[in-house]
Amino acid sequence: MSHAAPLRVAIIAGSTRPGRKADTVARWIHSLAERRDDAVFEVVDLADHGLPLIDEPVPPMAGMYNKPHTQKWAATIASFDAFVFVTPEYNHSTSGALKNAIDYLFAEWNDKVAGFVSYGFNSGFRAVEHLRLVLSELKVATVRSSVALTIGEDFTGQTYTEFTPRDTHETYVTAMLDEVVTWGTALRTVRQG
Ligand SMILES: Cc1cc2nc3c(=O)[nH]c(=O)nc-3n(C[C@H](O)[C@H](O)[C@H](O)COP(=O)(O)O)c2cc1C
Question: What are the NADPH-dependent FMN reductase-like domain coordinates in residue numbering (predicted)?
Answer without folding.
Answer: 8-150
